[in-house]
Write a structure and sequence with these properties.
18 strands, 37% helix, Uridine Diphospho-n-acetylenolpyruvylglucosamine Reductase, domain 3, 5-stranded antiparallel β-sheet, homodimer
Chain lengths: 475, 475
């Protein structure tokens, strides 16, 4: 028997606050054409990749071109106690951008300058609207790269705000480990800097990491300084097919436990491989698959690959199929990054409800296999991909957004999965954030006391609850 | 011309608050023999390795044996609005443990149990009083190790509270990167948990990293979950001598910029080598020296070492002297870890004023060489060691604690060094924390706005200012 759909999924907390005309007039006076109230613009800024619908859009959109623009917009909104919702490219999966309490969207997309590349120090400082692909394009000549790669071509500001990661995190860490410093506009419209370009510091509270993962609820991130890495001398990518998910996962578990510094190791289940094949016109073998990449010196890469191939063969893995040229590798990883979009297109008109649990690696097989069995039994179409080296995986339940029943069944699967992951010492969110979708899960995971502490911090820094209100936890 | 010694160094903010007899009686009633008011015990808990003297000790010491003990002690102190100072082994270099506003010391040394080793997940959870050496002893049979190694055999709780690092941080990161989860007693005496055992998470504010580096000012850390690493298959340590500090530092800079995953790379200047030789009865060549360690597969270690040897030879480095056996390596690293104590003993009766700047690696040579010139010109004896792979180094000015003039000159050197490091995009503290000693520097580094935000957080979580008051920033 399924429990009824939880309150948060029908969004009863959609309670737009009044936006006084005086604020709109003041924004238009200050920003001119940089401020839009056109319905199409507002609607574009009032939705994201989540399965939430029917939330009214923000009352206005300010296209910020500088930190001063952001500070001025926040100050005006603060005077009127009107919500502020920072916007990057709109790729959130958890409803972060929805104007559930109304307010003004601040679009940082025009703040897209790479401000300073310090190649010798392996750092770069960018405006918050720079996207990850843009950054890697602009630093190509330095021989360095920025490894964090969520599926979407998200902005560095948005990635910081959600503590994003992606396929390279197993080796290079997440935004948590890779953001060195931020510039932030506070809820009062003041500009502060957190952190320095030093690689480590014990100087005061870690404001940088307080803002990384704060999902726009404490301030607007306007600049980001991140670490870069030397492009590896040698890169090899390989695919390995397995008869069962258990075999694939156990290969990963042993690889991690042995300390092999694998750069990427992604699981794609057989059904999702078929979807990707169709979408990207590929001929991948339609079995459960690990997609791997090795970085290092030529000898180091060879050594790592031999170790993993040996482990895979003990778990019934097929021979590695190598992608040796940069073009082949790009094609494979593009396919992986497009899995989400391929899956959504595989059922016309559907929306994906994404799960995002992450568990200690020793529990990965248990967590994943029980959840696959439940998903198979449910009859809901789904895709399954995973950053399995980190213990993080995503089911995407492909629901008809107009079917309350499908939505309820998918959310029930999600709840069961989260309960299972929490029972194993895991988290409800490896990389997507809480947004609107996991507010109940956060309380289950962190406990009332820890959430109360988060609320205390929020009340202290944003006493009028204007920064992206209604997200992460209840006010 | 030297500026006068700054206010913070003569500690005008020593303002013990009254500790009501009723609190002492209540603590004694609750804790019996676990609560001591003996002068010797209080004095031992009222000092650390900093150069501060003449601060009255705490009014009582509670030897906590459980989280409940800590919570009860904090609750009693909170009722009476009396300060609480968490105590590990007393190895702070920055005055963290001094009872500048009076209060009660909570000694966590008896909370020294390793609670659960999850070898398959490369994690361990310990009580806060477990020391780093104890932890590595207790997990020896698992084939794993915990890399963070400040000079002292500090507790994991203290290391978390100061965001400590050490010689392995260049490869394995600091406490910032390696603490997964905490149990904390809040300023209200409530027990919360932050984080999970999952390797990454985007679920809510990063309370873990808010407490890592909070120096006891937001709560008492009672349990710590940290990452472990597989013991490398091969380890090689080598010493290389250089005619100038610049040659040594430039070797390091190039090594880091090339992305060589060196596990340790420490600078010891010629004078300090002489001190260490005398203290540890070694015969190291008394030149500027890099002490290095390489971790990996046998082939990987060979490859790394060859690359660094090649870089060193281009910078006039002597041939590597290898320490091949575990015993030789332990002897070398023990010598490095004892450099501080060796230096302090080299001038009987002295106290060391330690600097702790950390700069982006491209500026390391400039920062270090100018500071060496200043130190040489000052006539103050000093030692110089550095985690140079991170851009972090320590001068220890060995002053006569009764000489106001020496103290003033040493602090002036420190101020000049910090100003230089901040101008280069660095930090005043790489790993020791702010404590009493760097409160002014923190404001210079972070700016008034960021420090005001830290203060807002402190006021929100500890409204009566009972958690280690008078440290990090002014109330």
């Amino acid at each position: 028997m399924n429990a009824p759909a939880q309150a948060s999924h029908v969004l009863p907390h959609v309670q737009p606050r009044p936006v006084p005309p005086a604020l709109i007039e003041a924004l238009q006076a200050r920003f001119g054409a940089q401020c839009s109230t056109a319905l199409a613009v507002r609607e574009q800024h009032g939705r994201d990749e989540s399965a939430f619908t029917d939330v009214p859009p923000p009352a206005a959109v300010v296209f910020a071109e500088s930190t001063q623009d952001v500070a001025d917009a926040v100050k005006l909104c603060a005077q009127h106690r009107v919500p502020v919702i920072p916007f990057g490219v709109g790729s959130s999966l958890e409803g972060h951008l929805l104007a559930v309490q109304g307010g003004v969207s601040i679009d940082l997309g025009r703040m897209n300058k790479v401000l300073s590349v310090n190649a010798e120090d392996l750092t770069v400082t960018v405006q918050a609207g720079v996207t990850r692909k843009q950054l890697n394009d602009e630093i190509k000549s330095t021989g360095l790269f920025f490894p964090i790669d969520p599926g979407a071509d998200a902005t560095l500001g948005g990635m910081s705000a959600t503590r994003a990661s992606g396929t390279n995190a197993v080796r290079y860490g997440t935004m948590r480990e890779n953001v060195l410093a931020l510039e932030v506009v506070t809820a009062q419209g003041e500009v502060i800097r957190t952190g320095t370009r030093a690689k480590k510091s014990s100087a005061g509270y870690d404001l940088t990491r307080l803002f990384v993962g704060s999902e726009g609820t404490l301030g607007v991130i306007t600049e980001v300084t991140v670490r870069l890495y030397p492009l590896p001398e040698a890169v090899s990518a390989a695919i390995c097919s397995f008869p069962t998910i258990a075999d694939a996962v156990n290969t990963v578990i042993q690889t991690i436990q042995l300390g092999v510094p694998i750069a990427r190791v992604e699981l794609i289940d057989a059904g999702t491989v078929a979807i990707v094949n169709k979408y990207a016109k590929l001929q991948l073998r339609e079995q459960h698959m690990l997609l791997m990449e090795f970085h290092g010196s030529p000898a180091g890469v060879r050594e790592q690959a031999e170790m993993v191939q040996h482990i895979a063969s003990e778990h019934h893995g097929a021979d590695f199929e190598w992608a040796d040229t940069p073009e082949e590798r790009t094609r494979l990883w593009t396919a992986r990054h497009n899995a989400y979009f391929a899956a959504v297109q595989s059922r016309p008109g559907c929306r994906a409800i994404s799960t995002d649990t992450c568990v200690p690696i020793s529990r990965l097989a248990d967590c994943l296999l029980d959840s696959v069995a439940e998903a198979d039994a449910s009859g809901i179409p789904y895709f399954l991909v995973g950053h399995v080296g980190d213990g993080n995986f995503h089911f995407g339940y492909l629901i008809d957004p107009d079917s309350a029943d499908e939505r309820a069944r998918a959310e029930q699967l999600n709840r069961q999965l989260v309960a299972r992951a929490l029972g194993m010492g895991g988290t409800c969110s490896g990389e997507h954030g809480v947004g609107l979708h996991k507010m109940d899960f956060l309380v289950q995971e962190a406990g009332e006391g820890a959430v109360a502490m988060m609320r205390t911090l929020k009340h202290a820094l944003d006493p009028h609850n204007i920064m992206n209100p209604g997200k992460v936890f209840a006010w």
